Every structure is written in structure tokens, then in C-alpha cells.
Amino acid sequence: MTETNSKRPVRHLLGLSGGKDSSALAIYLRDRVPEMEYLFADTGAELPETLEFVDLMEDYLGKKIERINANRDFDFYLKLHNNFLPSARQRWCTINLKLLPFEEFVGNDEVISYIAIRADEPSRSGYISSKPNIRTCMPFRDDGITKEDVIEILESSGIGLPKYYSWRSRSGCYFCFFQTQKEWVGLKKHHPEYFDKAKTYEKVDEATGTMFTWNQLGNLDEVVRKASEKHEPDKKEKSSKRLLDRLSDENSGDDESCLICMK
């Protein structure tokens, strides 16, 4: 009796964040890797513009974008971490709401995970799984694709950039601690309800006086006030800059810092 090979084929996965780089990579690879599976880790704290853009990408790609999540929201994990807000050093939100759900989605299948790190980001490594069945691939870095190329890919496809790029340089949760001062100002202007909700997470330890805030400069009202005072004089100059230049100016950690691939 002949033994049949029951091994499953290698799966090709691309995680979308609702941001420019991962979306451009999906467009770039759509016809190159027709067997690609697309996924989006929904944290439950996404901007409406992000969710709208993911829906738009799903229509363009002609394939379902699998929504994955941890089945538990941010508040659950906040309590689990003794109400300590996540930070760049303690990124428990990324681990619990994105990375672990991704690895659960993969299971034991052999997978190639496509990461949207560009050629002009030599110091970034992205998400490298410790699981031996998950391999990473960085087509933009391999093919010399830069930020300017990414914008061209999006514009020429007819998709364009997500709407939030008019005031924000990254995708991710509305309360993301990677946001710059001006991005917090933008959140207050465009989504005051989310800004007010983000403020409710900030606490002061009455016993010690220690503040637990999203930004080390102070609570969000202070951050917005300081940012407005600092940047008011250059408002006219800022409006005349090209979008590419504005993204470069505001992008301290590059966009999509919190995706499965850390981009």
C-alpha cells in the first residue's frame, strides 16, 4: 500500500494594520503571491478610519481579510497587569492582543510571514517568531522599496492613503503610547470622544503621588497644551509641506509600530 503525503502546503500570511506600509505590501504582492492569506488583528481600540481602510483593502484584494483577536479586550489585560498602562518598554498590549492571537491563528502550520519593513529602514527587524514553523520574508527590503515608493504604490493603485494620515503618522490603537504630542492634538480635534476615553485610563496613585499616563510629559491635557504652545508658530509652514515630508517629520518610531510585524 502506497503511503500518501498528508503534509499541508506552506501557508503565506500577510498581516495588515490599516496603515500604509502593510497595505502597500499587500498590493505589491497580490499578483505575485496569489495564495496569500490576509489578516487583521483587531484590538477593539481601532480608529474608525482604520477599520474603513481595512474594508477598502478587502475589496481591492478580492479576498477576505481574516479578523483575529484575543477574544478579550484591552481592559481585561489592563487588570491582569495591575492597571499598569503599556509602554514602549512594557508592550504587553502588543503581545496579548496581536502576537499571541497571530501565533494561535498559525498553529503548527508551516508559514511564511510577510513583513512590510522597507529598504530605508535598515535598523528595524520586525516580529521574529521563536516558533520554528514561522519564517519571515521582507520583500520591500529585498527589492529596495522605500517610503516614497510605498506612497506611489498606494496612489497608483487608486487606494491612496488612509484618511488619518492627514493628522496621524501611524496606525494602531487610538490611545497608542507611540503617538507624538501633535498626534494627541489631532486625536482631540478629530475624535474628541476617543481622547476623553483615553484620559479615563490615566491614574494617580494617591498613596505615592505617582502618575500613570500615556505620555511621560504628563497627563493628556498637559501633553496637548504643551504641544499646541510648541507648534503654533510653524502651522503655516507645516501646511505647505509635501505629505511625504510631513510623515517623515512626525514619524519618530515610524508608523504601524504595533502590528504583528512590529511595523
Description:
The chain has 263 residues and is an alpha/beta fold. Helices cover 40% and strands 10% of the residues. Strands 3-2-1-4-5 form a 5-stranded parallel beta sheet. The protein has a two-stranded antiparallel sheet with strand order 6-7. Helix 2 (48-61) links the parallel strand 2 and strand 3 (65-68). The protein is globular and about 60 Å long.
Give the structural class: alpha/beta
The helix fraction, in percent, is: 40-55%
Number of distinct beta strands: 7
Uncertain runs with pLDDT below 50, 5 residues or more? 1-5, 249-256
Helix count, DSSP H or I runs of 4 or more residues: 11
Q: What name is given to the CATH topology of the largest domain?
A: Rossmann fold
Strand content: 5-15%
User: Mean pLDDT, rounded to whole units?
Assistant: 85
Shape: globular
Tell me the CATH superfamily of the largest domain: HUPs
CATH class of the largest domain: Alpha Beta
Structurally, how many domains make up the residues?
2
Note the gap between the termini. Answer: 50 Å
Question: Strands of the largest sheet, in order across it?
Answer: 3-2-1-4-5
In the CATH classification, which architecture of the largest domain applies?
A: 3-Layer(aba) Sandwich
Radius of gyration, whole Å: 20 Å
Q: What sequence of helices (H) and strands (E) makes up the elements?
A: EHEHEHHEEHHHHEEHHH
Largest sheet: 5 strands, parallel
